[in-house]
Amino acid sequence: MDRSAQAGPVANVLAWSVLLFLLLPISIVFPLSVTDQRFLSLPYEAPSLQHYVTFFTSERWLTSTWQSLVIAVFSTVLAVTSGTLCAIGCWKLSTRLTDLVRVLMLLPIIVPSIVYALGIYRLWIRLDLLDTYLGIILVHGVTGIPYVVITVTATLANFDPRLEQAARSMGANLSQTLRWVIMPRVMPGIASGAIFAFIHSWDEAVLILFIASRALFTLPRRIWDGINENLDPVMAVAACVMILLSMLMLAGDLWLRRKRER
Amino acid sequence: MATLAAALPETAPQTRILGASFSWWLLIAPAVILMLAFYAFPLAEVLWISFTEPEPGFGNYERLLTSAALQRVWMTTLRICTITTVITLVAGYVVAYALVSAPPRMQRWMFVCVLLPLWISVLVRAFAWVTLLRSQGVVNEALLGIGVIDQPLRLIWNEFGIAVGMVHYMIPYAVLPLYASMRDIDPRLVPAARGLGATRIEAFRRVFLPLTLPGIVAATVLVFIFSLGFYVTPAILGGGRTLMVAEYIKLQILDLIRWGVGTMMASTLLVAVVVVLAIFARVVDFRRLFGGRH
Predict the structure, then answer these.
(1) What is the DSSP letter of B40?
(2) The domain containing residue B222 runs over which residues?
(3) Which regions in chain B score pLDDT beneath 70?
(4) CA angle B166, A194, A259 (to 5 degrees)
(5) Which pLDDT belongs to residue B7?
(6) Structural domain includes residue B81
(7) Among residues 7-36 of chain A, which lie with CB inside 8 Å of chain B?
(8) CATH no. for residue B191?
(9) B21, exposed or middle or buried, with CB in 10 Å at 0-12, 13-18, 19+?
(10) How far apart are CA B274 and CA B272, in angstroms?
(11) Predicted ipTM of the assembly
């Protein structure tokens, strides 16, 4: 490429300042979590793991972590199963009606969470599902479906529909075709969708304010209350735990992408 | 689409058999039922309640015209969203511009910086901003330490803090569509303009900038609609002193139990988002945009 097409030094300096701004909040959380003080600050003398000890011996934080994990796992299963089947069905049928179905599946991404929160809060009051695992898993599962539909649809775009027809014409029934022909091909898309759906539930902090109160207190919910009440240094540890899980998922996603490209 | 059209004549005889397409519809059914029962239905009920409680009619919507408090909430929301969108677009444009012309190795590192924040919980990021910006926070301590200021700056629990947090959240969503539009530009165009005697700035303003217009529109719409209904960051960094519409709705429902006003504001918010989307859906290919995370 011609040199004059490259960004000038001014543009580059500005761009890197923006990028550093993007990394700033993420990079501050870990130093805060190893403070040797009893309040939220950077370490004064030497880094200390005292707040990690507090986190991993505190029943409240451990219970929250456990509840978050259980909810995220089950809602991911719900989103992946229904979302994958839906994406495959829409891809195969591909009519006007299935276009409408795809738009319906995108709703949770377009509609602000706060609007949906009111509706589901009202419905769960009526069905007595507030503060229950079933209630939260259903909500996180349903709002996780779009991520699965998007990733699986994207993988299906490169899939030759004649393969499916060939399988059917050679006598494979629907479940055999799904299992042996379609599923292996869309597996990377399903895995990516699962990662997104999992992170969606793990991080979700708006709906949970409405549909859970006492019995179930997910990690985001506990951090939320902590920010508004007392800025305990243990919260920095909790934030690190949340980041760690996100990073594991990101690594998994990158690994899948690389595998797909090969 | 071309491959699909080619495949159609072959599939036609199959789909004529009701049984064949029926079993594929069965695959779609669970997701559709879940989405209708636990998403679309409660959402429709929000709209319904806004017209029926506390009494049937347009009473809640009339408040929009008469209540100064409600108008203030909307004005604050629109003002903060506009400021956020403008700053985000400028910052995102600079990053996308540097990104598209960077050598591949550098480009990979820049992409990591852009995408990494998307993977971190919104709540964790808001928490990090609180620890950075509050009066005993890292930024103020550092500035006090080197003697630039003699008393802490008020960086949080006001509109400034909200804008910082929101811009930080939105930048990746601006960079991605901007980058996509810049990548498609023929890299020889700007050097050609320069060769014909245009200055660096002229070549940018008259050749490069107009070609990125679709990306600018897409990024603006995306950032603006995400900002409108944003709850977590404004609620935490505003500290309850600067009310935006999402937090106002939460207060009405959970603290004051005024369903009528709460659902009316929620419906108005929903309509605003849908209208902005509908206007620009003709201009922008949103299918390509919704590949990312929320």
Answers:
(1) I
(2) 59-289
(3) 1-20, 283-294
(4) 105
(5) 43
(6) yes
(7) 7-8, 11-12, 14-16, 18-26, 28-29, 32
(8) 1.10.3720.10
(9) middle
(10) 6
(11) 0.89
